[in-house]
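Bumping with the actual sequence this time:
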Amino acid sequence: MENPVSEIPRVIRLLTQSTPATQRATVEKYFTPSASFTHPFCRTGSFEGSRWLIWCIYRWYKIMSPRIDLEIEGTAYDEKNLILYVNIHQIFRIWIVPFYKAPVSLVTVLKLVRYPPLPPQPSYSASINPNDSQNGSLATSSKTPLFFIQSQNDLYQVNEFFKFFSAFGVLSGFLLLWQFVATAFCVLGAGLLWPVSWVEQNVIGGNSQKSIGEAARG
């Protein structure tokens, strides 16, 4: 990829919605040979040739769900660390299970590598064109860098992950209820243990490394 932010939506659609031959060509074109893939259901690790496992995962993904509705809802690029975040919403169906579908949202974290890599310090090569020697113009040589995927990590909220197993959202509903119950416990705990907050505010002082015993000793 020359421009990861603008090209990644097309790459994701080729990986999830194309023919087997195009799907494999996409994996081989955009992933490094030692790329890794991490998902709640599976992982490949990183070693020479691990890219082949990524193709197998995408192939099985497409076999299970020949039709995938997918929307890229947003991207964010950490250019300094070469990390691309992609917010995705998809509807996953298993063709052999009637009426089954899992509308899930996830964030895909893509670690990229740049080729050629940046030099330790910026360097510029310039050569004088003899034909332009009279006007003193300089011709600089440059090569457009390409970015490849070194690792893919698919992150799901727990309630989104449960949608893969939950018929008609039953498990997701129970999890949603539990999350509200857990919030109620947080409110109760914060209220009952208010003296701890008072000590932290007035004696220890926020996120200080000083322990309660040290604060008591002054």
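The tokens above came from a reply further down the thread. The beta strands are 31-38, 69-78, 83-92, 102-115, 126-128, 138-140, 146-155.
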